[in-house]
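Researcher: Sequence of Fatty acid hydroxylase follows. Predict its structure.
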Amino acid sequence: MAILETLYQELISFLGISNLLELFRTGNYSSLLTLNGILGVISPVIPLLLLIEVVRALVYKRFKIEDYKIPFLIFVLNRFISRFISIAAIAFCIGLFEKIAPFQVSFTWYWFIYGYVVWEFAHFVYHYLGHKVRIFWCLHSTHHAPTHMNLSVTYAHFFLEAPYADVIRTSICILAGVKPPMLFLIMFIDGTWGSFIHVGENIMKDGRMGFLSRIILTPSYHRVHHAKNPLYMDTNFCNLLNIWDKVFGTFQPEQKEIKIAYGITREMDPGNLWDVYLGELYCLWKDIRKAPGIGNKLLYIVMPPGWSHTGDHKTASVVKKASLAEAAAP
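Model: Prediction complete. Tokens:
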């Protein structure tokens, strides 16, 4: 019975319906007038969309278990080994930096916009480093390994990526004066949207979303981010507001003539949990082991993926430059 209770609680947690169940149990609907009550109602949206996505795939005979297997296994694995690490990391950063922040903003609509712009910058920094620093890419690559886009991909993360991301994002926001209550609301909104932009074509065939694509990062932009096509590599690092990609020159719209190829560029088995989860760390270890001298060994850790001590670099920028040159050649 204990096992069944545990499985039941895990299912409730995954679906995000615990607040709704409590609402129906007590009959106290006044909680819907509070922020926590509203957030509790919104929480099940992404899991519900995932279920709809799977059902539609089944109905139209497009469902392939391999498209969902690895993200599901990663979700289960991470539930056992990283449940509290990210929460502890956020609490540590708030306690460390809140008292030395040069100023703190109030919880008003205009400061909320400021807080969100700061959060988006912090997210850009974490995400950019996740693609440009080899050791961080080892943590982030698990999320890019799936070869098909669907809502289950949002659960495919190496267990240390969330703490690393939250340390960077929380530290920047707290130092910039964003108070914890506002930060937690922004995290919830951003996390919900960050899940939604992984929506597959079974739910949203064209993810451009019309005029909204001018101001926000749509599913189409995020599909580009997950592509391994040379033109698309290392682009669209933002999550909701695409302002910082435009500022730093990493913004890339989806091109109709370029079909998106999902996944990562190294040869791998996307159906193998351990290759998806630990493959990049193993490749890094092999490069470090064969590199001559301590300097080169350290450079493999901090340089971009594809960097080589031999000078034969295959980084995203090198691959993209070569591809563009080839396309421009007569």
